[in-house]
């Protein structure tokens, strides 16, 4: 196994091993990608306060997210097409998360179905992410399937009723499975591991949708499917409907604005995720880390606030926690690990992030993640109040 010491190593390896159209699908944002870049860059502008001669043992990163114990305040973010980064990708990532003791969130647009992941993880509870589509009967059945599979939280995504344009996906002709065009075949010939893995599984399509929606034989392109099926009229009344139907822990994902955060509180959800979908939707929106403090300030005592976007190290997790996030999610950091080395790669991602988190916390003079707050950050280096002011 190649020696990997940070998430960038895994990204480079994934780029080598994953077919171009799927690597590009992960490593891109919408339009100019300015929000995608800002998500990570803004983390790097925040500075820690180094403290010394403080007992650094024992250290704990244990916490809870929506009342459930987590080995560190990190969950795996829902990502579509994960089973195209590596054969059976969702099952492998869910197993790695389970062994590490953190939540795995399965996307509606996954390749392995809800039932596949449940069976592949011995019915260990995982989280399910819901996109609301026009066909409400299908959505009602999907919620029921998540309940039947023992899912312990529902993550309702609110920021993708229409799809942000990602130039590379259009140019690559992104489709699942890839079409046998000459450029695709030439590219696949350079990815023997990936091809062998895919030959060994029957899961090559959108497992939650195929065979469950009447008349769907072929999804065509992702953009085409989204524009036809996703419901652009989604409203807070629908959130209420989903909440009633689900009846369990509900997390609202994709909140960036303080007014929406207040509405999320009013909806009675258990948590919200400050997220701009990894810079894949509204390009030109502020980074998640710069949007976080104002939302925490406004609603943090009434709802659990989580965040995602740009996390590539345990230091980023620590900064998010310092700024008030009770939990964080990793999207691409997980995908790079998976594309690089399957389940072992996702485990490696989690080990790297955990170690960086734990050591950085100790360098800041803290031994328990529960005691982390803004006092570990250098005043003036971190965003406060409105994201515009940062
Ligand atoms: C390739 C890819 C696919 C994604 N698919 C979904 C999805 O199906 N549902 C969803 O709610 N979010 C989806 N997201 C957004 C992630 O859940 C998360 O918000 C984002 O990846 C966080 O940013 P990060 O990748 O910098 O960690 C996707 C992100 C990526 C990179």
Automatic annotation (TrEMBL):
One of its GO terms (biological process) is aerobic respiration. CDD domains: alpha_hydroxyacid_oxid_FMN (cd02809). Residues 1-382 form the FMN hydroxy acid dehydrogenase domain. One of its GO terms (cellular component) is plasma membrane. GO terms for molecular function: FMN binding; L-lactate dehydrogenase (NAD+) activity. The active site is at residue 277. It comes from the Bacteria. InterPro entries: Aldolase_TIM (IPR013785), Alpha-hydoxy_acid_DH_FMN (IPR012133), FMN-dep_DH (IPR000262), FMN_HAD (IPR037396), FMN_hydac_DH_AS (IPR008259). Glyoxylate binds at residues 25, 131, 166, 277, 280. Keywords: Flavoprotein, FMN, Oxidoreductase. The keyword Flavoprotein applies. Pfam families: FMN_dh. Its cofactor is FMN. FMN binds at residues 78-80, 107, 129, 157, 253, 275, 308-312, 331-332. The keyword DNA-binding does not apply. Belongs to the FMN-dependent alpha-hydroxy acid dehydrogenase family. This is Alpha-hydroxy-acid oxidizing protein.
């Amino acid at each position: 196994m190649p020696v990997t010491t940070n998430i960038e190593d895994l990204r480079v390896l994934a780029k080598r091993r994953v077919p171009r159209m799927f690597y590009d699908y992960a490593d891109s944002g919408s339009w100019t990608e300015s929000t995608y870049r800002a998500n990570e860059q803004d983390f790097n502008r925040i500075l820690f306060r180094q403290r010394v001669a403080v007992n650094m043992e024992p250290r704990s990163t244990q916490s809870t997210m929506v009342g459930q114990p987590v080995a560190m305040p990190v969950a795996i973010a829902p990502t579509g097409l994960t089973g195209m980064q590596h054969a059976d990708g969702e099952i492998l990532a869910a197993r790695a998360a389970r062994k590490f003791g953190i939540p795995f969130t399965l996307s509606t647009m996954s390749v392995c179905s809800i039932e596949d992941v449940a069976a592949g993880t011995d019915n260990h509870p995982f989280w399910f992410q819901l996109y609301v589509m026009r066909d409400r009967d299908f959505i009602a059945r999907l919620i029921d399937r998540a309940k039947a599979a023992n899912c312990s939280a529902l993550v309702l995504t609110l920021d993708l009723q229409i799809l942000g344009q990602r130039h590379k996906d259009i140019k690559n002709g992104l489709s699942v499975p890839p079409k046998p065009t000459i450029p695709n075949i030439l590219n696949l010939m350079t990815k023997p591991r990936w091809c062998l893995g895919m030959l060994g599984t029957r899961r090559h399509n959108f497992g939650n949708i195929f065979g469950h929606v009447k008349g769907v034989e072929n999804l065509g392109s992702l953009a085409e499917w989204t524009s036809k099926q996703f419901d652009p009229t989604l409203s807070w009344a629908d959130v209420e409907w989903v909440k009633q139907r689900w009846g369990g822990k509900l997390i609202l994902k994709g909140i960036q604005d303080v007014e929406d955060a207040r509405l999320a509180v009013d909806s009675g959800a258990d948590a919200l995720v400050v997220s701009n979908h990894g810079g894949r939707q509204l390009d030109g929106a502020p980074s998640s880390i710069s949007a976080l403090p104002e939302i925490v300030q406004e609603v943090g005592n009434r709802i659990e606030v989580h965040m995602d976007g740009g996390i590539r190290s345990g230091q980023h997790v620590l900064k998010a926690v310092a700024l008030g996030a009770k939990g964080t999610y990793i999207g691409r950091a997980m995908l790079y690990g998976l594309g690089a080395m399957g389940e072992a790669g996702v485990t490696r991602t989690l080990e790297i992030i955990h170690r960086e988190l734990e050591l950085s916390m100790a360098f800041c003079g803290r031994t328990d993640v529960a005691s982390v707050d803004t006092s570990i950050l250098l005043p003036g280096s971190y965003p406060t109040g409105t994201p515009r002011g940062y």
